[in-house]
Amino acid sequence: MAFKTCVSIAESTPARTISVTKKALKKSDYAEIRFDFLAPGDVPEALHGIRRHLCRCVCTLRPKDQGGRFGGSERERIAILKLISEYTPYLIDIEYTTLAKNKGLARYVRDTGTEILVSWHDFKRTPRHPELQKKLRQMRRISRNVKIVTTARTLADPISVMSLYREKNVNLIAFTMGEIGRISRILCMQFGSPYTYVSLGKPVAPGQFSLAEVKSMFRPQK
Question: CA-CA distances (angstroms) from residue 102 to 78, 95, 98, 138, 145?
């Protein structure tokens, strides 16, 4: 199985964000920069410090109601998302609900040349498969890059989410959080996900593998 990794980076200072990003990209294909862990005023400094590496970065500014740390106003968050897009990262991860409420945001981002990864998370459960399919098709209207992440409560939940990979004409990243769904973070690559999210040490999200764990799974046997 071919695999690629994306290290989640959640640092609270620009200096740490810059240094950890450079370190991560020496070992990983991509890095996810969680800008919501920074103070809003520190985002420009961090962006400037990693600008040469942004072609391999997925940029995220997650609000608190979506499992993030950003505590400013929604107006401020939209302004920062626009700023990030102007640096043309590999992908900018924006929530489906955010894009649905701010009709001009997707157009602004596209005009910068940055591709959107439209995302949707359910931190409590995994909806039934027809509901997941409907959500995927709604999201696909915004971007060909779609991320759907749910919380596994039963063994059937990861199977339901993996079944989404049957959909055509979409670059899909889909898996389940939590211990029950942990294996889906590996299986998703088998089904077509461009990468799986990993940590450099302590997990940033429930059930996340470390980079070392994933690499050990796929290290050629002697």
Answer: 9, 11, 6, 15, 18
Expressed as residue numbers, the domain containing 22 is 5-124+182-217
Q: Residue 222's pLDDT is what?
A: 53
Which helix (H) or strand (E) covers residue 6, if one does? strand 5-9
What CATH number is given to the structural domain containing 114?
3.20.20.70
How far apart (Å, rounded) are the C-alpha atoms in residues 11 and 168? 36
Would the pTM of this model clear 0.85, i.e. be above it? Answer: yes
Q: What is the pLDDT of residues 62-106, one digit of tens each?
A: 999 898 999 899 999 999 999 999 999 999 999 999 999 998 999
Q: What region does 178 belong to: left with phi over 0, alpha with psi -120 to 50, or beta? A: left
